[in-house]
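DM from R.C. (forwarded with permission)

"hey, sorry to bug you on a friday — could you get me a structure for this? deadline for the figure draft is monday and I only need the backbone to look sensible"
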Amino acid sequence: MVLFADANIILEILLPGRPKSQDVEKLLRGKDICISMLTVHLVYHFGLQERYELNQIKRFLDGYAILDVTGSDYQKALQTIRDKDFEDALQLAVAMRSDCDAVITLDRQFAKTYKDKIHFIVPK
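My reply, with the result:
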């Protein structure tokens, strides 16, 4: 099973003191995980704010398959956007184009809004 991890999942692991980090790490262990370049950007942004070194962030991201965000993903996101959350629509477009089996997210609204498009896993 190939999972597409929403940015909030990856940030939950990266950022210190996050309440669900252990649960998320346990859930991801042993699975093929994909992330988008949008998530890579967010990881570097917030990682650098937390004063991580570039090499630390790179090593952290090395375990994930990184998917490009394409112009067609942008077009698909424009066609499918709901609830005025473009980031969710863009992440969904990347996951669907890449034939991921499910999206794992902490965002219950994201899962609820697009449950007709792809399977979602929302850790408790």
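R.C.: lifesaver. The chain has one domain: 2-121.
me: no worries. The beta strands are 2-5, 32-36, 65-67, 102-104, 119-121.
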